[in-house]
Amino acid sequence: MDSSSSNDGCNTLQYTLAAAVGSFLGTFGSVTLIMTSIRHNVMKSMSRHIIMMISLADILQAFPVLVVSLIQIYEKKKNNDDILDWMGEKKCKWQAAVVTVGAMLTFLWTFGLSQHIYLLLRFGIKVAHRAYIGLHVLSIIPVAIMTASFCYDVLGIDEKTQTESHLLNWCWIKVTNESDSGPFLKKPCPAAMWNGKGFEIFAYIGVTVYCTLAWRQYQRLMEDNTINGDGSGVLTSGNDNPFTSGSNLRINKILLIPILFIVCRIWGTIQRLSCYCFLSHLDSVCTSHILIALLNFFDPLQGFVNFLLFTILSQNNCRCDCLTIVRANIQRPQHLTSAEPVTVYVQRESSDSSQF
Length: 356
Hints:
Blueprint: H1 13-39, H2 46-76, H3 83-86, H4 89-122, H5 125-138, H6 140-151, E1 155-156, H7 162-168, E2 172-173, H8 188-223, H9 251-278, H10 289-298, H11 302-312, H12 317-326, H13 341-347
Antiparallel strand pairs: 1-2
Helix pairs in contact: 1-2, 1-10, 1-11, 1-12, 2-4, 2-11, 4-5, 4-6, 4-8, 8-9, 9-10, 12-13
């Protein structure tokens, strides 16, 4: 391993621990969110189905990072700091493909969720449903991109990204094609853009725009008395109204979607684009201790953030159920009064399949 990767003797275990904690929380949050949706039979709701697709994509990104982080912690006990030794180039290439396609699908479906909320408020369920079908078709694009990148040897690790991959606990793309010769799309910056960063920037803009439009539309509906302050009212027909009194989704929750999404992802955008498009991989920005630690922790954390946003912060029976899953072996007292929220949640059935 290159001596510069040690950063003057800095112990890289801190980066590994940050990645392990972030990826564990992300995997846990995504799995629990999926389990609550299945348990309460809310999958007929397009909103909940989109959230489930986001959770599945988050697992694709977070779980491989968790596995590699645990392997690296184990290998450090044997004083083995070479990523190629404990992972291997082929495994690194496969990990890069799975993590990157998971990230791109997360970007796509998070964009789709914000679009769905706006279209549902503005045009109704029929238009929202057509866009929802389109999301499934567009999901082929990330898979096709990863297949092409895998076949044309764009993914993986080389001598220039070995230090970075070791610190970040996952592999991405090679940078051996920095010269003027060779295919344009295999050069570092173009390869970075079409292997995730382009999707990421598109999602930043799209999620922010659609959530802002949804917020404005929500305000108009409240002014017209079409929708009440708690989200109840005649908004759409069918089962996919995410603003029912049962789900109690307020406008602040819509605005949290782009804020939390950007907070989790912006560190990777800064680090990756700086290294692959503007600076050298040995530049201080690319190997910044703080930036790498933030990237390691927050990038795979999206599933846990969604778990908090769509389950813990939701005043519905899914909130109760996630606590039931986490504390499955704890017996609930039989003498709970009706004033206690848990009793209300347990007694309520999933009559509103549109819970958000």
